[in-house]
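User: For a teaching handout, I'd like to show students what a predicted protein-ligand complex looks like in token form. I'll give you the sequence and the SMILES for pyridoxal-5'-phosphate. Please answer with just the structure.
Assistant: Understood, here is the input followed by the structure.
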Amino acid sequence: MDIKILKEAALKFGTPIYLYDLKIIENQFDKLNKELSVLENYKIHFAAKSLSNISILKFIKNMGAGLDAVSIEEVMIGLKCGFNKDEILYTPNGVSFKEIKEVFKLGVKINLDSIESIKDFVNEFGNQSITVRINPGIYAGGNDNVSVGHSESKFGIPEERIDELLDMEKKGKIMITGLHIHTGSDITKNNQFKEGIKKIFSIARDFKNIESIDLGGGIKIPYYKNDTSTNLNDYVKEISKELKKFELEFKKKLKLIFEPGKFLVSDCGFFITKVNYIKSTKTKDFLQLDSGFNHLLRPTLYGSHHEIINLSNPLGKKKEYDVVGYICEKDTFAEKRKISDTSKGDLLCFKNAGAYGFNMSNNYNSRLKPAEVCIHNNKILKIRETQSLNDLLLGQIDIF
Ligand SMILES: Cc1ncc(COP(=O)(O)O)c(C=O)c1O
């Protein structure tokens, strides 16, 4: 990304600000499709939770993707953006049955992740075809917070309860037409992916009505030079191998679904902030930014790494800094980070801020959420206003 454009966006629209380069999303989508093209029948469903600005969703829809939604709100936003009902897959976890009912009535595809919710579903709607999320009992992912497919995790139907599901199907209560797994995010160890692929194809053997397998998201992209990443070629080879075995044995074709979030939109995002002060102590120099974990939560939540560039002095001599926010709790973005010599007022840019960046932002300390802009056809276009104090007060009731 051209530093000049990042600076121009910050000067034109102010800081802090999220900027997305749509060309990068398109390139990632093409890259993934190229790898997946050996599989005959597949669909990419973008994980809306990672970035759900309506302009981004529309752009991704126009590239040909479907949507992976976790809440009725994401479903509604998806419909508003023009995704067809059958292009949205709703995978809730622990939501009320009222919500599941509402989504089903909208005609959107339902992917349930507990025997308990399936029982409610059967009681209400009788024998329908649905897909289900399985917990494969595999530890995968970059850290504990994003590892969701192991036996201690709340996600998916635990392996030991799959028999209950098969029994319900045998008794004609429900028809399971698809299985889904998502073991975690930032999966670097290809053997973890492979384990999951083998497991889900093996479980699929018992489901006689199966038409699709959804392999979730989790593809790891590099966050810095020489960082690890998922070997996509290996990943697809393993899927292809298991798919061929299955199709040969059961004489039927399966559709595959993929739900990338980070792979599509992490790289495209840049979060630009300004240095309010440089506070020096005996041991360190703190760069105090006009932002905090209210805008970019990932480093505080699970220690995610974001490369930081000083846009105002990109070629300056490197010095070591602690980069911190203005929130009234510890909100360290980076410790002992080498950044070009920085002065008060400089613009600092966080890379890989597209996925789970703005979407995890909040109003803690009554701070306003930042604007979002995108680069499209060489133009910087605003796609979300900075919140105003009125936005913050909206819906509050003054009883005095
Ligand atoms: C069910 C499901 N699918 C897909 C994703 C996207 O994962 P990633 O952004 O790692 O590709 C997630 C992330 O939490 C998820 O929970």
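For the handout, you might add this sentence: The chain has two domains: 23-264, 269-353+370-387.
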